[in-house]
Design brief:
Blueprint: E1 2-5, H1 10-15, E2 20-23, H2 29-32, E3 36-41, H3 45-51, E4 55-63, H4 70-76, H5 83-89, H6 91-100, E5 103-106, H7 113-125, E6 132-137, H8 141-149, E7 156-160
Parallel strand pairs: 1-2, 3-4, 4-5, 6-7
Helix pairs in contact: 4-5
The protein binds NADP nicotinamide-adenine-dinucleotide phosphate (NAP).
NADP nicotinamide-adenine-dinucleotide phosphate binds next to strand 1.
Protein name: Zinc-binding dehydrogenase
Pfam families: ADH_zinc_N_2
Organism: Nannocystis pusilla
């Protein structure tokens, strides 16, 4: 598995299982990585557009930060009325994928008790590690959001409601 990281995150992603790490502050990842089965984009924009170049034909690009597409409306949201809007919104990545025979999907997080129970089991088993950047008291929630918005948090920020 390959991933991008800056030197700030390199030790963390290596510990989490990355075999290949591309420093995104110095190198364009699509020149270093080729022919992967899939790519998972957490950044969107230009990073999403470039992700198609690292995936082989028949593969899949999934984005958490790009545009929702028609399957998001039909399957994930159960709102077929949104198909035309999402079709238009995702035209860029879908056309990019069509040219390379790579599918595009948007990952939409939605509340699900059974998914959370499954995640909790995997965390208890040690299959998933929860990475916590920091734990802050409620009084410091403003600073915590500012840190999150900086785009450089390393994992989750937990807010303590009671001291
Ligand atoms: N679709 C959904 O339902 C859904 C749900 C939740 C979140 N999201 C979206 O998912 C995205 C990711 O959120 P997140 O909570 O994981 O955190 P985030 O705060 O966006 O990501 C922080 C991490 O990304 C690294 N990073 C920043 N720019 C990068 C780049 N150009 N290339 C590679 N790595 C980069 C930073 O590393 P360095 O500090 O080392 O630079 C930092 O470790 C956000 O856009 C969020 O809005 C979507």
């Amino acid at each position: 598995m390959a991933t991008t990281a800056s030197p700030r995150g390199e030790a963390l992603v290596r510990r989490l299982g990355a075999d290949v790490i591309v420093d995104y502050t110095k190198e364009a990842f699509e020149t270093a990585l080729k022919d992967y089965d899939g790519a998972f984009d957490l950044v969107g924009g230009d990073t999403l557009a470039r992700s198609f170049a690292v995936v082989k034909p028949g593969g899949l690009v999934v984005s958490l930060a790009g545009a929702p597409e028609p399957t998001t409306a039909r399957k994930d949201l159960g709102r077929p009325g949104l198909v035309p809007l999402f079709w238009l919104a995702s035209l860029g990545p879908r056309l990019r994928g069509l040219g390379r025979k790579v599918r595009y999907r948007y990952l939409f997080m939605h509340p699900s008790g059974s998914d959370l129970a499954d995640l909790a089991r995997r965390i208890d088993d040690g299959a998933i590690e929860v990475v916590i950047d920091r734990i802050v008291p409620f009084a410091q929630i403003g600073e915590a959001f500012a840190h999150l918005e900086s785009g450089h948090a390393k994992g989750k920020i937990v807010v303590r409601m009671l001291d």
